[in-house]
Amino acid sequence: MNNRGQMGIGVVAAIMIFIVGMVIVNIMKPEVTTARSAASGLDCGNSSISDGTKLTCLAVDFTIPYFFIIVFSAAGGFILVRVIT
Question: Where are the domains of the chain?
């Protein structure tokens, strides 16, 4: 297959990866909110929690942005692999 075909397949696959990633993010958002709530035990809104719990709250908060970075990296990497090879 020529380079134009490879680029077309790469773009279509990258769009598919992006769409699937955004669907998964919409599924993850309520779970992150539930994990941070007082009912789950983390109680991230409380100012008198321990340092370990604060660190756990921070790790839970980084889940969504980290997932965005992974999705964009995978989609961009797939396009780059198709263009370079």
Answer: 3-84
